[in-house]
Specification:
mainly beta, single chain, 8-stranded antiparallel beta barrel, 1 helix, about 60% strand
């Protein structure tokens, strides 16, 4: 009976923490990259991403997502984190895992449109490639 009580307590605790959790889903595209020499090259060399963020606390979120590069044709898995030292400004750190591994760090700004929707602008620096990117996107918060 004691084990049953512990099991029920654990399930109720887990359910209450998950039901109060905050999720943020982001979709973005690179507006500019420093390795694009031609201003119209973004058509042939684009980068898209989709991420899910789980807020452990109000200022810290764990992220997981995918990023697709058209040149070279590559899909990367992206675990990472976002830190909001001053809302709406955030810092993000993430590795890009595919055939090649790269690491990116960046800062961003998220402007709320409604309680659920936001527009984001962020800059990232890719350490292995040695280039930077300016990204725009939208976010939806549950």
């Amino acid at each position: 009976m004691r084990h049953f009580f512990h099991l029920i307590s654990f399930v109720l605790l887990f359910h209450s923490s998950v039901s109060q959790a905050q999720f943020l889903f982001n979709f973005g595209i690179d507006a500019y990259k420093t390795d694009n020499r031609d201003p119209f090259e973004f058509v042939n060399k684009a980068q898209f991403s989709a991420e899910a963020n789980y807020f452990l606390i109000q200022q810290l979120a764990l992220t997981a997502g995918v990023e697709y590069w058209t040149a070279p044709n590559r899909l990367s898995f992206i675990p990472g984190m976002r830190l909001y030292p001053i809302d709406p400004v955030f810092i993000r750190l993430r590795p890009l895992i595919s055939d090649e591994v790269d690491y990116a760090a960046g800062v961003g700004y998220a402007r709320r449109i409604t309680d659920e929707w936001r527009i984001e602008v962020m800059g990232d620096y890719y350490f292995e490639r040695g280039n930077a990117a300016l990204r725009i996107g939208v976010g939806y918060r549950l």
